[in-house]
Amino acid sequence: MSDTNMTDSEMSFFEEIKSYLRLYMFSRRYQKIKAGQLTWEERLLSGPSSVQRLALGRMIRARFVVGWRKTVKRLVDMIVSYTAIVCSVPLMLLIALAIKLTSKGPVLFVQNRVGLRGKTFNMYKFRSMTVDAEAGTGPVWAKKVDPRVTVIGKFLRKAHLDELPQFFNVLMGEMSVVGPRPERPYFVSELRKEIPHYDRRLAVKPGITGLAQIKRHYDETIRDVKKKLRYDVLYVRRTCPLLDFKVIGLTVLTVFFGTGR
């Protein structure tokens, strides 16, 4: 397979493999040095210092820890999303029927969003607003009291049921169950100008729910976005399976007790 025929994910996978191989060869050479098995020529060309050996050890451990966390996170994403889709099929059919009977327009709302490392994708939601809701205003943030929201849409948004189709985005690898909420390209472009380090939240896959979502609700001002960004950056820095499980648990409680939007 040539490089031109490989996808970004495949290229990233092979680059990761090459990095592991280089580290493995370097560590093997260090073991030979430690065991006194190198020839004098190899000793002349090798001989890492204790600082270099310590840095190498930390690098190897860090890479394996990151790789392990990514593997566990993807496994959790697959299990949770597949289970959610299978268990909610009857509910999703009822929601689709309710949307069709109460308002004109499609059942699903498809919108371009910014994901991992700035790559865009189509995000799916159950439509909770009127068709062409932004035709006269252009891109605007949703509000707590929004006249564009339909009757059934108010219930869907309160119970977070409008987000159910995003489990398909998770299965396709475009999103994760837990992560910063994906924003529209227009707002990302504007927020990059207003908020330093905004791109830090793009270091991980966007999520259906996240630390910022269980702590705060709608973004109506730049100040709201800045407050949420603190939680997003905190999640990126401390991301681990245990934190994901905690966020998922708190999200379930939020939905169950109806303390949503």
Automatic annotation (TrEMBL):
Residues spanning the membrane: 79-99
**What is the membrane topology here?**
Multi-pass membrane protein
Q: Could you tell me which residue ranges the Bacterial sugar transferase domain spans? A: 73-256
Positions in coiled-coil regions = none
Q: Which UniProt keywords apply?
A: Membrane, Transferase, Transmembrane, Transmembrane helix
Principal location: membrane
GO CC terms: membrane
Q: Where in the cell is it found?
A: Membrane
User: What one GO molecular function would you report for this record?
Assistant: phosphotransferase activity, for other substituted phosphate groups
The entry's family comment says: Belongs to the bacterial sugar transferase family.
- Protein's name in the database: Bacterial sugar transferase domain-containing protein
Q: Tell me what organism the protein belongs to.
A: Candidatus Danuiimicrobium aquiferis
